[in-house]
């Protein structure tokens, strides 16, 4: 569908880690970004981004407390969204901000759906 963003698994993102001529992708809050063209312009240096190449850099990105300018640049670099199954995995490994979410009905439903998607998308 036009305008709809492709889903990528963490494994697919990991293949775009800037090595061997691949582009540099990273995940921030379940969105997949291609930051290849921005690396050299990054005020914090390219090394900080390289550290998170092919991975989920949400925590470090947030820890710095980037400005709305940074968010605006980020939006222009979006290439996709993280596959739902991996979003769930991220939450289980500490991405979940609010522990009260864990047992909610929505969350359980989402977990069930995620399991199904896991089978389809993430093997
Ligand atoms: C995930 C890894 C990242 C880390 C750890 C990180 C860290 C930092 C740090 C430490 C600075 C401060 C540099 C200084 O003042 O000397 C900075 C600035 C900045 N970064 Fe990042 N950064 C990351 C990714 C990104 C990405 C992906 C973008 C945008 C596409 C971005 C955009 C900016 C901008 C615009 C600034 C200037 C200050 C501001 O407007 O917030 N950063 N970053």
Report on this structure.
This protein has 123 residues and is α+β, with helices and mostly antiparallel strands. It has a domain at 6-86: Cytochrome b5-like heme/steroid binding domain (Flavocytochrome B2, Chain A, domain 1, Roll), CATH 3.10.120. It has helices spanning 10-14, 46-50, 58-64, 68-76, 84-95, 105-122; strands spanning 6-8, 25-28, 31-34, 78-82. The protein has a 4-stranded mixed sheet with strand order 1-4-3-2. Helix 5 (84-95) packs across helix 6. The two termini are 24 Å apart. The site of protoporphyrin IX containing FE has 19 residues, from helix 2, helix 3 and helix 4.
Features:
alpha+beta, 4-stranded mixed β-sheet, Flavocytochrome B2, Chain A, domain 1, binds protoporphyrin IX containing FE, 4 strands, 123 residues
Topology:
Layout: E1 6-8, H1 10-14, E2 25-28, E3 31-34, H2 46-50, H3 58-64, H4 68-76, E4 78-82, H5 84-95, H6 105-122
Parallel strand pairs: 1-4
Antiparallel strand pairs: 2-3, 3-4
Helix pairs in contact: 5-6
Bound molecules: protoporphyrin IX containing FE (HEM).
Protoporphyrin IX containing FE is lined by residues 35, 38, 42-44, 48-49, 52, 57, 60-61, 64, 66-67, 69-70, 73-74, 77.
